[in-house]
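pasting input
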Amino acid sequence: MGIEERKNREREERHELILRKAKDLILDLGVDALTMQEIAAASELSKATLYLYFRNKDAILTEILEDASSAFTDYAKSRIPEGASGLMALHALWSSYLTLYGESQDVVVLTGIKNYIDPGFPLNMDGGNGKFGAAMGKMMELIADVLRLGMADGSLARVKAPERLAHTVIMIATSIIDTVTRIPRHRRDPHLISIEMRETFEILLRGLAAENADPSLLKLMAQ
Amino acid sequence: MGIEERKNREREERHELILRKAKDLILDLGVDALTMQEIAAASELSKATLYLYFRNKDAILTEILEDASSAFTDYAKSRIPEGASGLMALHALWSSYLTLYGESQDVVVLTGIKNYIDPGFPLNMDGGNGKFGAAMGKMMELIADVLRLGMADGSLARVKAPERLAHTVIMIATSIIDTVTRIPRHRRDPHLISIEMRETFEILLRGLAAENADPSLLKLMAQ
Amino acid sequence: MGIEERKNREREERHELILRKAKDLILDLGVDALTMQEIAAASELSKATLYLYFRNKDAILTEILEDASSAFTDYAKSRIPEGASGLMALHALWSSYLTLYGESQDVVVLTGIKNYIDPGFPLNMDGGNGKFGAAMGKMMELIADVLRLGMADGSLARVKAPERLAHTVIMIATSIIDTVTRIPRHRRDPHLISIEMRETFEILLRGLAAENADPSLLKLMAQ
Amino acid sequence: MGIEERKNREREERHELILRKAKDLILDLGVDALTMQEIAAASELSKATLYLYFRNKDAILTEILEDASSAFTDYAKSRIPEGASGLMALHALWSSYLTLYGESQDVVVLTGIKNYIDPGFPLNMDGGNGKFGAAMGKMMELIADVLRLGMADGSLARVKAPERLAHTVIMIATSIIDTVTRIPRHRRDPHLISIEMRETFEILLRGLAAENADPSLLKLMAQ
DNA sequence: TATGAATGAGATTTCATTCAT
DNA sequence: CATGAATGAAATCTCATTCAT
């Protein structure tokens, strides 16, 4: 069984290698420039081999997206304090996003890819369910939960249909990143991006918060 | 004399025909599926003929974008009341956008195309100048003007760098449309889109308005 | 009849206009870049109109070539002294070519075009007769005459088949120009061209002259 | 191990196949008629496959040119006797060219291609560098060397600037071939071509040789 | 006579994906 | 398991030439 274990481990390692290289390429060159050829070259594998690990190009992208959204969701969850109000939770959410962006730009991958994989998400009538996996769903769920919470405790005003509103929120929150994912690294201005992200999230906070909200929860730290 | 006029008119008609067909195709199938071949077929012209009317594919897209953004800008300007406050102006702006969307979905074309033409806009370090024409610039200018106005009269809180903020605002405002332009018609749900647009704009209004704002200016009519 | 005369004159003028503009374009941009579109634009005529004056693109080029070779032939003939030996005549011939080149680069057009019109000339088995007109023939004839003369008076050694040798001579003499006609003006170095032309002609003179030739007839003036 | 070898060999074979077919097409139809489509058909491969072996069309042409000029240079070098005078070397050079042409028409490919790849060579002001590879340079170098040698030992008269003169010489020497490469095979007369080549080279020899040259070095064998 | 308009035919190149070994 | 090789299907754009008015 030691052999089988090793095989599994190696298989897993290749799998990760491919994903990592693909991510790097996206971050370096932009999604639009990502080709199977490039991924293969970067991984020092043949194109055909890629298909042993992933059904097709989409599967690679989908998994990258899953990883990223999963990482974000987990991180964000861990930073939402026990017993937090909806607004506090939302604040923690955006804070996490900014921090994550500050630490590594991997989150960047998150949504531009989302749009690339399923250009209509989340507006498709079929829900785009076939395309995205669990993690993306969990992320939407988290946001919906936060909105629901805020609706219940009154800290987020005018939230009526949390599930649907979660769509809107996610689209707004990711609008910058959608754009960023298409720019090659050398043409990106990380500082500007950071500022615009923060601005976007503050608009979201103020746009969703109840009137009497604690002002400190409407501002985010510059990274 | 009459003859030349007719020629000009016919030429203009063909020009419009191509643009219209291209728009239809975008609306029907999504920008990603737009090809010169398809435009030619839809226009019942040869591919070569398209090049008599447009320098290249980009020119077609750019003109569609210009038309749409120009239409929006003009319409919005005409609906901003004389002597309006910044917030009132912003309210009128989003109102116009919704109305326009309600009347015809052509505005939809607006931004998905924008992203398609220049995937990094407006975050490019080179400013992406040269790709977009006057109308797109006028639209950004209008938004910046409104923000400046609100900053001056105090109706829009926390606006500090109107030109830059205009970027953020435009990205947020168009995030839905960006998405929509990539969905084929049969998978779009116009009602849902309408709701999400309204929601987005209300978030923007609340997110930018000063604290003591007139509540009626923070809501938008359902179309 | 005054009317008819005027018509004829106007027709002639248009004809010349087109040729002149085409020539200019060739000289400016190189033959390879010559398109009917460009000729039409430069002539301020429509493409279709060009076809009223010339059967096709080839006809334009052929006529330009004819004009140029005719101009050269006439000029050269006028400069061959009465009673000249073959070598003297050949010397006068190349002298004329250089002078002509010095005065205006129009002769340049001469041969590159030749190769462009009929890439195989003068090696085609059908003699390329269908393509070239009288003037080109006259030019070959002139060279053959000179060679014959030199063969008769002994001033040109080893000339045995003047008609055939005329081919070789013309190919050698025009090898530079063939090349030049494909270079746009801004990338041409007229001085270098001039030097290489002279060198080529001196090689031809020495290569064909009898042993005891007057040395002064083996050199050409720098322009 | 044997397997890898075989793969390499097969790859090499395909590579050669494509080159050979392309050469054949050039020889059969003329460079001007050479298209990727035709090469693909002749090789019984798809167009896309061609791009696995060559970066682009130019790369195919360039390699054909390199092969041909390299073959010529090597062959010529091997035929220049130890301790030969400049004139003897030049004689050997042209002899080689003729022999090579007699054996296979590969040399034919040489210059038409050269002119096709870089229409202005060698008269470009930028030197046309980057387009041609090493072999072409070696060929020019060889000629320049021979000229230098003849200048030193006095066997070639009036050679002053060997590098530049090498240009002229190469243009003259290849003028026939330039022409030939553009004629489809069925319209070529190999015998006539052979004669004219010889004539050209003899003119070059006599045109460059010093006065007292050994007459036998001024003549070339008919092939 | 003049022309605006149209086009057929083609050229080069790219990319995700499959398959025999 | 790995891969080299191959390809179908597109996509964008160019140009000489024709024709109805």
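fyi The CA atoms of residues 80 and 129 of chain C lie 28 Å apart.
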